[in-house]
Amino acid sequence: MAKARGGKARAKAGRPWIKWLIFGPLIIVLLIQLYFFLMICWWTVFNPSSTSMMRTQMSSLQETNSKARLRHQWVPYERISNNLKRAVIASEDANFNEHDGVDWAALQKAYEKNTRRHKVVGGGSTITQQLAKNLFLSGSRSYVRKAQEMVIAFMLETVMSKERILEIYLNVVEFGRGVFGAEAAARYYFKTSAAGLGTAQAARLAVMLPNPRYYDRHRDTRYLGRRTSTILIRMNSADLP
């Protein structure tokens, strides 16, 4: 009997890999989340110099041109036109000031749409979720990535003010091939500054956000014109943080 118990004890002691197999992936996931949280805390005070989306775009551009550079210039919140702030909220996230990072009604609609199409065609993302994706994630569409996006969005909303979230978003979001942030977009498309954007210009930039590289190449589509007119009307009711 004693020998049997001793054999079982040695067998258990000889299989530590089972614990690592179970707990190892969990520890890795938790460390990744800690990294995300610490970076978000850092960015409450300091401005991000680049994002995951920027680095991906830079790599793509340099595949064909080793000297390619991104168009990007950080400007503080007060130097971004209120027209653009209102246009982006009206176009991308009408409930930006009310939700906690996730708009559950929009997510439900996106889920129903994806179910009908039998693939992920829309995410129902808020501005906060889009910022989470831009800062840390890829542009791929999957429910795993969406779950991580939501976790980061909650972190952002916990640590940052709405104003800071919108400030970072407007400074890092992609507006065209290699064009990131409000200042670069204003100069690239309209030869003006982010502070000088008029209502129609701001509405046009906001409408481009869901597919900026496409609309960079196709700037006169009927959809852009119709959608811009709609956002111009909605801008008046968009509340700023």
From TrEMBL:
Record field: catalytic activity: [GlcNAc-(1->4)-Mur2Ac(oyl-L-Ala-gamma-D-Glu-L-Lys-D-Ala-D-Ala)](n)-di-trans,octa-cis-undecaprenyl diphosphate + beta-D-GlcNAc-(1->4)-Mur2Ac(oyl-L-Ala-gamma-D-Glu-L-Lys-D-Ala-D-Ala)-di-trans,octa-cis-undecaprenyl diphosphate = [GlcNAc-(1->4)-Mur2Ac(oyl-L-Ala-gamma-D-Glu-L-Lys-D-Ala-D-Ala)](n+1)-di-trans,octa-cis-undecaprenyl diphosphate + di-trans,octa-cis-undecaprenyl diphosphate + H(+)
Molecular function in Gene Ontology: pentosyltransferase activity; peptidoglycan glycosyltransferase activity
Membrane topology label: Single-pass membrane protein
Pathway it works in: Cell wall biogenesis; peptidoglycan biosynthesis
Annotated Glycosyl transferase family domain residues: 68-235
Coiled coil: none
Enzyme Commission number(s) from the entry: 2.4.99.28
Keywords from the UniProt entry: Cell inner membrane, Cell membrane, Cell shape, Cell wall biogenesis/degradation, Glycosyltransferase, Membrane, Peptidoglycan synthesis, Transferase, Transmembrane, Transmembrane helix
Gene Ontology BP term (one): regulation of cell shape
Gene3D superfamilies: Biosynthetic peptidoglycan transglycosylase-like
Tagged with keyword NADP: no
Keyword Phosphoprotein found: no
Pfam families (UniProt xref): Transgly (PF00912)
Location in the cell: Cell inner membrane
Transmembrane segments: 20-45
One GO cellular component, as annotated: plasma membrane
Family recorded in the similarity comment: Belongs to the glycosyltransferase 51 family.
NCBIfam families in the cross-refs: mono_pep_trsgly
Summary of the function given for this chain in its UniProt record: Peptidoglycan polymerase that catalyzes glycan chain elongation from lipid-linked precursors.
Alphabetized HAMAP family for the sequence: PGT_MtgA
Name of the protein this chain belongs to: Biosynthetic peptidoglycan transglycosylase
Naturally occurring in which organism (per UniProt): Massilia polaris
Gene name, Swiss-Prot/TrEMBL: mtgA
